[in-house]
Amino acid sequence: MYNEIDLDKIDLSSEPPREEPARQYYYMAKCRRHVKAESERLGRPLFAAVRTFGCQMNARDSEKLAGILESAGYMETDREEADLVIYNTCTVRDNANQRVYGRLGVLNGLKKKNPHMKIVLCGCMMQEQSVIEKIRKSYRFVDLIFGTHNIFKFAELLFAMLESDRPVIDIWEGTDQIVEDLPIERKYPFKSGINIMFGCNNFCSYCIVPYVRGRERSRAPQDILNEIKKLAGDGVIEIMLLGQNVNSYGKNLENPISFAQLLKEVEKIEGIERIRFMTSHPKDLSDELIQVMKESKKICRHLHLPLQSGSTPILQAMNRRYTKEQYLALAEKIRREIPDMAITTDIIVGFPGETMEDIEETIDVVKKVQYDNAFTFIYSKRTGTPAASMPNQVPEDVVKKGFDKLLKTVQETAKARTALLRGRILPALVEEINAQDDTLVTGRLSNNTIVHFPGEASLIGKIVNVRLKECHGFYYLGERV
Ligand code: SAH
Ligand code: SF4
Ligand code: F3S
Q1: What is the predicted pLDDT for the residue at 6?
Q2: What is the CA radius of gyration of the chain?
Q3: What pLDDT score does 472 carry?
């Protein structure tokens, strides 16, 4: 629908419409008029930079922000010496917050040189009261702040900011609204993420996401399928279905549907050649899903299955709702049913009360599952989560020792799994020219392994067969066949 709306035909002398998304298109048109006048005054286009922190869901949100900025008449740039800079923030671990504060200092310097510059903050970090207070007090040069629940209102907020010389701050506690059909500016022409659900109801005791992203809401299957069909029409061949826990997709819809059923419908869409999804909570991964993955020609051979810990008492304190044995049984079933499936994971070290013995249990799971890759994180205390007020926060030396030992094991299993592919010929989707060597292109296998091989830009966005010649730890050098 959004491609068909002509912003120049919207009557700006009338009252703004009440219904969405029409209201936002009205404000996009208003912003556009403002941006055009400003750009005529300066005799050059206005530039906007969108910078993303955090997960795939934030990356997708940033494409929505970029879509609205483009509709408003801004030219996109990677450089932060721009007329408008927006940070889409993450708060899952404290270092994500520290990075934003650090960068804000730099932006302040840029703004001193260009006083017309506008600085915008949004995303998960902005849903925390303490962050807003800190920015209000110590970062007064920020022009607009909004959160995760009202991102669909970006055009309206942008206009409010352009018309005001005081900071605009609008944070919602929650929402049950899902606004469809706003413009999106995709980063890649050939692949795209698609939100299938928002929020999370799991309340893992260490995690801040349910507090900053709100309750779980699934999009209607028809909206998802229509969006994917439109993307396929635009030349997208790989999609990634996004949600904090895709395995519980659809349970709360008026006409409930399982994630596996949704996947079957997505499979039927012509033009889509690869289907990925993120993230799966082990407690909800059904046999139905394993069967659908097994029979599918399009679902990629990659499953991200966060473990968090291999120690049952720690898992219990984390509120993960599975035991070490249940997780191992699940991983074994997947390996048995779909042997070429890569399994990757997330692990936290240093959760309150964790001992070296607990970490050994985690290492044991890593050895047994033989992960293809694992992201290991040091536990970060998040204010407001149950774990933050647990006693027995773990001493730094235990964390460091455990983390190093775990990392070593993870690297060993990942290398061993990657090496299994040596000599095989497999299809790779070419994503880009290699950053270090422009005679090479970089492709991704169905199981998410990266392969670099000689090739040129015309291959980007195509799936080609590649022989995997040299294994370099986590990636391959290959040749097209
Ligand atoms: N919904 C996803 C994860 C989203 S957050 C899932 O449940 O799998 C991504 C990862 O960040 C988590 O899997 C976890 O390993 C890590 N993480 C979350 N909160 C954390 C914290 N307080 N400290 C350290 N790592 C954390
Ligand atoms: Fe956080 Fe757990 Fe929800 Fe993942 S499932 S987002 S780790 S609360
Ligand atoms: Fe971070 Fe928010 Fe994603 S906290 S990990 S950007 S959901």
Answers
A1: 85
A2: 23
A3: 94
